[in-house]
Protein 1
Amino acid sequence: MGDRIPWDQTTGVVVVGFGAAGAVAAITAHDHRADVLILEKQPFENHLSTSSMSGGAFICPTDVTAAIQYMEHLCRVNEELCWTDKDILRVWAEYTSQNRRWVEGLGGKVELRARGGEHDLPGSDCIEVYNFRGRGQGLMKFLKGQVEMRGIHIMYETEADALLTNVQGEITGVRAKRGGGPIHIKASQAVIMAPGGFEFNEEMKLNYLKVYPAYFAGSPANTGDGIQMVQEVGASLWHMNCCSASWVLKFPDFPIALGPDFGGIRGFKKWVNSAAKGVPCGYIIVDKYGKRFTNENFKRHTLYYELSLYDSQKLEYPRVPSYWIFDRKRIEAGPLPLMFYGPMLYRLYRWSKDNQEEIEKGWIVREDNIENLAYRLEMDPFVLNQTIQNYNQYCQQKEDTEFYRPPQHLVPIQESPFFAVKIWPGSANTQGGPRRNHKAQVLKGNGEPIPRLYAAGEFGSIYGMLYPGTGGNLAECIAFGRIAGENAARQPRR
Ligand SMILES: Cc1cc2nc3c(=O)[nH]c(=O)nc-3n(C[C@H](O)[C@H](O)[C@H](O)COP(=O)(O)OP(=O)(O)OC[C@H]3O[C@@H](n4cnc5c(N)ncnc54)[C@H](O)[C@@H]3O)c2cc1C
């Protein structure tokens, strides 16, 4: 119990995790006159958060009422049930609509990226998406500068592993591993948990997500540590089976997933900075059996759910893995992963310019004809051949009568050699974690707040099954980082 702890250090507000949410919470709590200390488990020299590996886009709605409407439609399940309480959606709308002003007010540079939410629902027109200059890397550099400018101390290589409480059940501080031993840090006002998701915890993904395996492109430090910490003090969890995800490349000898660059025109938009920019490359995605199952003009943050289909007769996931099938044109257009995304942004893996090294490693399967490709993938050659013939026929007639892929994206697969790469469910992040209220307080099973405990960011995100679209998580990091920071700083000192 916190009352009898020999404290190693005392501060007002302890923030666990130095990603975007932790940084914004720390800045805000400081600006509301709290003494703040950030605990970060990674070392200073190579600290890499998912926030810094991200695209750096964030949502900023132009109209609070319309934003509430959009979120209510997104979260509604039926008359009684909603993924997220209405008062939380209201503060989300109020705070996210100030995101741009907040960032620019501190000197951050942003530019408009897109208008409109990802889903065509009432209110979606009010969504504007801004890119932070320099993307996630630029955003975290900027936030770090703000933290340092305020003299907020970041204790690196300090892994929080327990929340400490007093006899009244109030959170009094944090126990952390540092330099081989435990340290105890007293939070005289509050603790804000912002340690990210559980993208790199295999057991949690197996138990909580809709499909296994699922792979993610962010920081391997996100191992869901905080979830057990908050459960031990009675927190209730929510959104544990929800993710913002589609499909990714993942290879056994590299731990982080990579985003696929389908080349030229992909899905609903041209990829900016695509290696194959401007080269329209023919490709399809097929299941284990060589059949297409979706319009490749997919939704970036929702397609994951389509991969989670389970076949109860065969006792398997027929779409895990799926295969990206393409021809010579795409190989010649440049590296297969998106170079501006996740680990490639930091060159954590050096992909060969002509893809040859990865062909030699067996990551990319190459064959001179479709039959041999099918044998290598353990598919029926007749089925794969038929799928490609049908697809090429749709390209010729400029109409995909099976999945309705837009005509401008119909490019045939016909130039030998032919290639295949495994595609897995996953991509950006998990959303699950402790349930929070509109003040960012962590809630118990009975709905009461755990005194002096707050959460922000993707650690118990407010998003349920449907994600509002590009920029949703960072929007929430900024909004709930501020909400948590303000409310934590209001707590009286003990
Ligand atoms: C490739 C990629 C691109 C993306 N692009 C976008 C985008 O453009 N827009 C958008 O909105 N979202 C995007 N996302 C999602 C978004 O980046 C994340 O949801 C968001 O950055 C999460 O921020 P966070 O502050 O909650 O956590 P994180 O940024 O993950 O930070 C958590 C921090 O906590 C630390 N930590 C973990 N456990 C402990 C512990 N026990 N003790 C101390 N420290 C701990 C970690 O080391 C880490 O530094 C993207 C994700 C990926 C992977």
Note: The chain has two domains: 2-242+431-490, 245-427.
Protein 2
Amino acid sequence: MDVVLHSCCGPCLLEPLDALRADGHNITVVYANPNIHPVAEYLRRRDVLLGYAGDAGVEVIEAPYDPVAWLEATAGLWRSPADRCRECWRVRLELAARAAQDRGADAIATTLTVSPYQDAASLDAVAREVAGRHGLAYVGRDFRDRYQEAVRRSKALGMYRQNYCGCLLSEVEAARARAARKAR
Ligand code: SF4
């Protein structure tokens, strides 16, 4: 199938790209991440992704960076990480689905499922709903068993590896969690 693979960053692209290609899919990557704050971080992650994609011979589409639209979509949900993340995934996968439709692709997929920090069942439900609404299939591979290999490879490649998910709130939450671990 022709699959548009939503990708959040270079390290998370490594394993899903290999796995989907090994399954015989033709992959185009879409960098669709208006959640990422600040813009310098957005650009840094994008450039790491582009560097690897060039080496791997995969085309990358960059979706419009519209943090205002992301803030509007998640407004009122900021104190509830589960609800906030669901809406965040929806915004990003919508952008991926639109890119897939523009290209006449068959399906979308996402590298978010490589992260053990995401709620895989909720993410799967959101992705299927978005894909279905656009008349696309969702290649719902769970890549979490490849997370450690993704970490190993990204370190070996000297890739920048961020220490928070992406939004301003996740940066604060991650910093608090690190401080709490240190204080133990
Ligand atoms: S924690 Fe991550 S998935 Fe959740 S809203 Fe923030 S950027 Fe999006």
Note: The helical segments are 10-22, 39-56, 67-74, 81-103, 120-133, 147-156, 168-183.
